[in-house]
Amino acid sequence: MKKIFLSVTALSMLVLLSEAQNIFPATGSAGIGTNAPVVSSLLDMRSTTKGVLFPRMTAAQRGAIASPATGLMLYQTDGTTGVYYYGGSWIRLVTSAAAPSLANLASVAINQSLVANASGTLDLGSSTRKWRKGFFSDSVFARVVIGTGANYGVYGNGATYGVYGNNTSSTGYGLYGNNTSNGYGVYGNNTGSGYGVYGKSAEGGVGVYGISVGGTGMYGSGDFNGVIGFATEGDGVSGSGNTGVSGAGRYYGVYGNGNDGVGVYGNGSTNGVQGNSSTGDGVHGSSSFGAGVSGSSPTRVGVYGRTGGGVGDQSGVYGYCSGFGYGLRGFSQNGFGVYASGGSWAGYFAGPVYSTGGFTSSDRKLKRNISDLVSGMDIINQLKPKQYEFRQDGNYKLMNLPAGKQYGLIAQDVEEVLPALVKEAQFNTGMSQPSKIPADGKPVSAATEPPSEIIDFKSLNYTALIPIIIKGMQELSAKNEELQQKNEQLQNEIEALQSAFSKEVSPGGINAARGYLEQNVPNPAGDNTLISYFVPAKSSRAQIAITDMSGAVIKTCAVSSGRGRVNIKTGELSAGTYNYALYVNDQVVDSRKMVIAK
Description:
The chain is mainly beta.
């Protein structure tokens, strides 16, 4: 009996010892690999050669766990492997990538690149829950950028691009900014040699578009270019606001290239497009079928461009269109569609210019030292009209001079007669290129730029020849009137001679044998009058006597035999009626009356 009791007691002790291996004390600490566990820990495990191994199972086994406790952890061996913990649902512990909500990131600087798992498949934020602000120390690259704000719709500051946008779809914008206050729709500042604002869009879109309620639709400032935009069929650069588009840059203030649209388009209450450049073009636009530059303003200037005054300067506004549109198009309701001002030339047009009307300054108050032009024909007779053809060889073809036979004057010939009408001019062949910026949008270095040539030539102010031509026409008109009067007088004399001849040869002619007189011409007479007569050849002496109505002789004039005429200076006589008679051999053979009118 005693042996049976001892056996039962020993068995009970073994059972108790066996169960005690999985139970830690309610208080104190337990240690594995150490006899002195940390007091604040329940279990202190120490090893330099081993680790802790979580329970390992498949995703199906993990899902079969009934009522998992919050904080339960395990390692999944299939599918997306890794350590999972339960926090209301099974959540994988991410080590190398951020969770979508960035919940596992502390409020410290992120020094890792946030890279999506595949190109163009994940969003940063959503349409309803957006990021409030973004701060970047360098450029921001995006396929589409749309921004709205009270100060800036889109603002960028970088060494390569201040703001860069590229839209590959058929609609939309490469870069779009909307400012709800009086700041900038799009603002870009480039501290290096790139672009303040750069936008590119595929067919049908707009390269860069900015809108502002009371400020500037788009403003770009850069060491190389202020604003630059490309579009296949839309507008290269388009802006709307107090000033539609405004840019400042060392190379181009505003540059736009639209294939079938508008290179640069601006619509503003003050200025449509405004560009400022120190050495390049203030506004540069290029298009194949649309308008190179188009600006609209209801009260001020449609397109305003300004460039510096140093050597190598180019154009305030440069517009180019290779197809059927406009190189430069400006519209203003009450101001100027296009305003140009230059110290040497306000504008240069390489090709024909069409206008539905034109005016030039001609107000008296704008002029001084006014005097009549003495002689126009003397000047005209010194000019040498020529026929010629313009050169089309070499760089001369870049000047887009008219082809075929031409008619005009040579500036050097005119300079000898009218030097004030001739002015020296230059053509920079580098300016004739439609674009100095390639499709990749990178700046053109001096080494890769096509070599340019400065062609010096003389230009002629044909408009100033108009007053000289008018004066010459007036002189010809006066001369023609004088000749017309003489012609009428000669015609009358011929008719009188014809009448006298007919009387002389007529068998029954009155006084044909004795002599006769013709009626004086003109009659009434002014200062002079002509009297035609006939005196027979056998006459010894003959004379014409002029008497007043009382018979008193006023004047006599000896005449010779044959047909003839005398010129009577009637200006010496008083107005009235007089008689004149032909005396042959002291006999009156004929007489007539004449009237003198004053």
